[in-house]
């Protein structure tokens, strides 16, 4: 009986040792698993955090880049619009100035032609009248000839002036005095001399009686 009890006690001790060893191994394994899990989890979180930071940085950079691009595009658009508006306005202003200038020359020539036509008509009526003397009719004929010669001389002179590079001009004759307006921003001294020579030669007037201006 005593021997059996000793055997049972030994078996019990061994069993307890095995159970204790198994428990310790389980606990160690569990701790290792937990530690590994924690390490993996931390690494994953760290990796995820890093990835988030990198992606956020790239996103911010892309946003900044896009904002800069948008700002530049907006600035370019505004500058382009401003430039286009300025060009359009300047073009409009220049066109208006040119139109006014062209109108001046055209209207001046029309008024001059109208004046000569009225003078010719008046002298022609005198010639047809039966209530004036022959001497008065002779004077009327001379005036008609003089007017026609002046008109022809003006036409020739204006055409010659255009050959000197001026786009337009208008000549006014008042007795021995001649005024000429040239379409030009400015006139050089040699250009003035050329115009004087043409006017003097074609209209038979002295250079001192020629008055030149530009418009």
Task: Offer a concise description of the structure.
Helices cover 80% and strands 8% of the residues. By secondary structure, the protein is mainly alpha-helical.
Kindly describe this structure.
With 215 residues, this protein is mainly alpha-helical. It folds into 2 domains: 1-114; 129-214, Stage III sporulation protein AH-like (Helix Hairpins). The protein is built from 3 helices and 3 strands. The protein has helices spanning 2-128, 134-162, 189-203, and strands spanning 169-174, 177-182, 210-214. A 3-stranded mixed β-sheet has the order 1-2-3. Residues 1-6, 28-61 and 90-95 have low confidence and may be disordered.
Task: Reconstruct the topology from this structure.
Blueprint: H1 2-128, H2 134-162, E1 169-174, E2 177-182, H3 189-203, E3 210-214
Parallel strand pairs: 2-3
Antiparallel strand pairs: 1-2
Strand order of the largest sheet: 1-2-3
The residue-averaged pLDDT reads: 74
Helix content: over 70%
Overall radius of gyration: 55 Å
Secondary-structure content class: mainly alpha
Largest sheet: 3 strands, mixed
The rough form would be described as elongated
N-to-C span: 148 Å
Number of strands: 3
């Amino acid at each position: 009986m005593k021997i059996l009890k000793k055997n049972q006690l030994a078996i019990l001790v061994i069993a307890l040792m095995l159970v204790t060893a198994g428990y310790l191994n389980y606990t160690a394994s569990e701790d290792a698993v937990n530690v590994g899990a924690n390490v993996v989890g931390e690494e994953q979180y760290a990796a995820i955090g890093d990835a988030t930071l990198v992606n956020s940085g790239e996103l911010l950079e892309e946003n900044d880049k896009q904002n800069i691009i948008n700002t530049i595009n907006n600035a370019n658009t505004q500058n382009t619009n401003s430039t286009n508006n300025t060009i359009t306005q300047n073009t409009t202003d220049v066109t208006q100035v040119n139109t006014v200038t062209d109108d001046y020359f055209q209207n001046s020539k029309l008024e001059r032609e109208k004046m000569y036509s009225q003078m010719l008509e008046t002298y022609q009526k005198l010639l047809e009248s039966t209530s004036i003397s022959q001497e008065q009719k002779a004077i009327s004929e001379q005036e008609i000839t003089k007017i026609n010669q002046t008109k022809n001389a003006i036409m020739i002179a204006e055409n010659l002036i255009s050959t000197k590079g001026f786009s337009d001009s208008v000549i006014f004759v008042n007795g021995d005095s001649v005024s000429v307006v040239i379409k030009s921003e400015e006139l050089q001294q040699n250009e003035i001399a050329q115009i004087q020579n043409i006017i003097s030669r074609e209209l038979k007037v002295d250079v001192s009686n020629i008055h030149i201006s530009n418009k």
